[in-house]
Amino acid sequence: MRLANAQAAGSVSGPADGTGTVFLRMWGLTLALESQLGSFAHYVRAAMSYFLCDPVESPDFRSKLEWVDGPPAASVDQAFPNAQWQQRPDRDLYLGNASAYWLRIDDFRDLHLSFALEKSSLTLCARYYFRIGNQGRLEALRRLRYRGPALEALRARSFSTLLYYLVYHPLLWHLSRKRNWHLLHGAAVASSQGALLLSGMPGCGKSTLSVALLADPRLRMLSDNLVLHDGRHVMACPELLLLDPASMKSVGKGAERLEAVGERRVFGRDAYRPDVWETQPVELLGVVDV
Length: 290
What we know:
Layout: E1 2-4, E2 12-13, E3 21-26, E4 29-35, H1 38-47, E5 61-69, H2 76-79, E6 87-90, E7 93-95, E8 99-102, E9 111-118, E10 121-130, H3 139-145, H4 149-156, H5 159-178, E11 182-190, E12 195-199, H6 206-213, E13 220-223, E14 226-229, E15 233-236, E16 241-243, H7 245-250, E17 258-264, E18 270-274, E19 276-278, E20 282-289
């Protein structure tokens, strides 16, 4: 299925102020995302506009963001008082029969996660502790300095990473365990004959080349960063495309098929959507090492 660049209708339950639950459908799976922070829910609607869907009674996955202003809890008992666990394979990982609790997530240490598995349904709770600095005594003074739009801009810096943990990671976990789809770091474009996969180290130009190839109207974007494969086919892991001004100058007419979403990420990269996303599996035609 090819998705044109248009906002889906009937996608949100809850009041119009940005709170409520966002329903998304990707790869045939439905996820309900609840956020205590209205601005994050608004961000998800904008970033995932292709995949918004009508509310469903029994989604495959449920994710919830709990936003806490202050330092993170010091232990699993403080973070999740009702935690039931029997094994501790790592200092910050606690496992139960059908549950898990993870503190100090990689380099995102202000995020704590809990997981509950019931049959084939996974529920994820992400508790994010927002603080402006690591010195607690100065926190109140910093919050006096960063107020209104400035404070909201600081909050928004974590949104793209939270989106991965709350949306992409649960769905990709299911695809790898249940459907034999595995993740590759690479870009890909599709034609009527098949897909061309662009591999290479970060920063080598995969995004720039994949967008430049869109100058050919017969080609469709799969992804510029992450691609799923089953050994014979590739499938998009669709994300916003991140390009800096130098890259945009290099993509030629391919830039005409992008829409800026008004979001800027690190390293001065702006976020874009392609005019068309190919979301169905495509047979692999060839691989180019960039």
